[in-house]
Amino acid sequence: MAALRRTLHVATLAAGARRALAGSLAGSCLADRRLWDKLHADTRKGHVPTFDWFFGYEETQGLLLPLLQETAAACPLRVLDVGCGTSSLCTGLYTQCPYPVDVLGVDFSPVAIAHMKRLLEGGEGQTPLCPGHPASRLHFMQADAQNLEPVASSGSFHLVLDKGTWDAVARGGPQGAYQLLSECLRVLRPQGTLIQFSDEDPDVRLPYLEQGSPGWSVTVQEVGPFGGITYFAYLVQGSH
């Protein structure tokens, strides 16, 4: 979580803009939707197409593509990104994945969702995004990741991605983080995979995941380092 507080991995932002964003987050409750509405609105004013905590799609594809290839018999693969914000994770999967994917990005910030819909559709004079596979699809919906009932039925996704969302929700207390985990596992297929990307140490994160995921396999892989920081991919998987 340290990097979530101190590092904004946005190479295209000017240094002054990065400092302004980091300052706006210092001491704030990262579970507060108003904070994210303001952050995404400020980022949009800077004409930055996407904004990534930790890292973007490019840094995750080495882990994601082999995992997607294993389940490529399902067509298309359903992928859910909880707390997508304006990250490049959804758009990267849609535009670069060679396998057919049906990606849904959800976030409780209406500002973030409106921005990503414009990016997808080519609003404000931009070129619409093109899929990496003809059968791939990408959608964005406003929803609270702690209550996915309005947008996702049980057992409906092959892969659920959480890049920094647990970290943000946990700032409001462990109860919300456990509710987030419960919802992610509810919408997963029995043989599906949840991946949490974080900089939080395994000694801290693993006990929470193991306690909150009875009957699921919990493992961890190092990711990076990027920008001098080592991150972790926490995989919660059903039986294969």
Automatic annotation (TrEMBL):
Pfam families xref list: Methyltransf_25
Residues in Methyltransferase domain copies: 79-192
Family matches, as InterPro entries: Lys/N-term_MeTrsfase_sf, Methyltransf_25, SAM-dependent_MTases_sf
Signal peptide: 1-22
Gene Ontology MF annotations: protein-lysine N-methyltransferase activity
Localisation per UniProt entry: Mitochondrion
Enzymatic reactions: N(6),N(6)-dimethyl-L-lysyl-[citrate synthase] + S-adenosyl-L-methionine = N(6),N(6),N(6)-trimethyl-L-lysyl-[citrate synthase] + S-adenosyl-L-homocysteine + H(+); L-lysyl-[citrate synthase] + S-adenosyl-L-methionine = N(6)-methyl-L-lysyl-[citrate synthase] + S-adenosyl-L-homocysteine + H(+); N(6)-methyl-L-lysyl-[citrate synthase] + S-adenosyl-L-methionine = N(6),N(6)-dimethyl-L-lysyl-[citrate synthase] + S-adenosyl-L-homocysteine + H(+)
Keywords, alphabetical: Acetylation, Methyltransferase, Mitochondrion, S-adenosyl-L-methionine, Signal, Transferase, Transit peptide
GO cellular component, one term: mitochondrion
Entry's Gene Ontology BP terms: methylation
Function statement: Protein-lysine methyltransferase that selectively trimethylates citrate synthase (CS) in mitochondria. Seems to conduct trimethylation in a highly distributive manner rather than in a processive manner, and thus introduces a single methyl group per binding event.
Protein name per UniProt: Citrate synthase-lysine N-methyltransferase CSKMT, mitochondrial
Organism: Neovison vison (American mink)
